[in-house]
Specification:
By secondary structure, this protein is of the alpha+beta class. The protein contains ten helices and 15 strands.
Length: 380
């Protein structure tokens, strides 16, 4: 065809321009670099007696895993990292992948997500909506000390800058140590290191914005703003799809959304004797699928990753310029915590006798968490 092709835009775009034949391999490389999580079978029963496959119900959980995995890749390997088949990968990559294996001792496994969903009012084996999976990831991240992410899930279509900065600002280890020392030691250490010694550090941010962009179908007035989000360098894409069919959207081509599809059932893969994981089934080597944006169910969740505070400040500027200019805004960005909301308290790990994935070994241990309202579940 001689007609010019529409522009292809990808979340965290490495390639943004006319999608010509010469760029096809680069586009496919960008797709294959992402971790692709699908239905699996023959893993250990969830909860000991539950399902040993998530086929038919776990697609939104898998999409949540894909979004989070992309954030971890950006955190440890950088936005421009590429995966190559049959090539030895960095140790950080292997460690990221092992966070998502289908075992109860892996922090973001299907086991952990399904059981944490019980605290969100979802039975094991029940389908999740975008907001539910966001709340589950927020709570599981509290037990993940290696990645040390701050996960913020917006409420009432509103992102509060003050709350995010309160959650992400942490004292450096030197400052925390000094704070526990006697006054003499505190004065000596701060004087020797200068005024920047106790300046707050930034905890890498995974920002998830659950939205409902219509009643029964997406309102066309939101389409341009929705696509604009994929252009932002902080973008991780979006969770959404059709009723009871979830997809991980990673970009768009004209009026078509590009997505990774979890609806393929593969056999459980575990670590090998040398401690690594055979990753060949965790990358999509086929061209991604597409769907018209107007066929999207209105319940979605946008994802963004801000490794440093300057990334978040840049994101706020982009939102003010591209999203808040609309008469009917897709979501709001405010500086101060709304006075009519309950006070914001940064989430903290509950006091338990075990840590990490071992914590969620039965649904009885979920009482530490408050039930979050899942206001935007996709419905038939």
């Amino acid at each position: 065809m001689n007609n010019p092709r529409p522009k292809a835009t990808w979340s965290q775009s490495k390639i943004w321009g006319v999608c010509q034949h010469s760029q096809k391999s680069k586009l496919l490389s960008d797709i294959s670099a992402r971790l692709w999580f699908t239905y699996r079978r023959k893993f250990s029963p969830i909860g000991g007696t539950g399902p040993s496959s998530d086929a038919g119900w776990g697609c939104m959980l898998r999409c949540g895993q894909m979004m989070l995995a992309q954030a971890l890749i950006c955190r440890h390997l950088g936005r421009d990292w590429n995966w190559e088949r049959q090539k030895e990968q960095p140790k950080e990559y292997q460690r990221i992948l092992q966070c998502f294996l289908d075992r109860k001792d892996c922090c973001y496994s299907i086991h952990q997500m399904a059981q944490m969903g019980v605290g969100e009012g979802k039975s094991i084996g029940e389908w999740f909506g975008p907001n539910t999976v966001a709340q589950v990831l927020k709570k599981l991240a509290l037990f993940d000390e290696w990645n040390s992410l701050a996960v913020y899930v917006s409420m009432d279509n509103t992102v509060v800058i003050e709350d995010i900065k309160k959650m992400c600002h942490t004292l450096p280890l030197s400052a925390e140590t000094a704070a526990e020392s006697p006054p003499e030691s505190l004065n000596a250490s701060t004087q020797s290191k200068g005024p920047s010694a106790c300046s707050p550090a930034w905890k890498p941010l995974l920002l998830i914005v659950p939205l409902r962009l219509g009643i029964n179908q997406i309102n066309p007035v939101y389409v341009d703003a929705f696509k604009e989000c994929f252009k932002m360098p902080q973008s991780l894409g979006a969770l959404g799809g059709k009723p009871n069919n979830a997809y991980y959207f990673i970009g768009f081509l004209g009026d078509e959304l590009i997505f990774l599809d979890p609806h393929t059932t593969q056999t459980f893969v575990d670590t090998e004797e040398n401690g690594t994981v055979d990753d060949q089934t965790f990358h999509c080597l086929q061209p991604p699928q597409r769907m018209n944006i107007l066929n999207l169910d209105p319940s979605v969740a946008l994802g963004f990753f801000c490794k440093e505070e300057k990334d978040f400040d840049s994101w706020c500027s982009l939102v003010q310029k591209e999203i808040l200019k609309e008469n009917l805004r897709m979501f709001e960005l405010v500086q101060k915590h709304p006075s009519h909301w309950p006070p914001f308290v940064p989430p903290a790990k509950p006091e338990v006798t075990t840590t990490g994935a071992e914590f969620i070994d039965s649904t009885e241990q979920l009482e530490e968490f408050d039930l979050e309202e899942d206001f935007e579940i996709l419905s038939i």
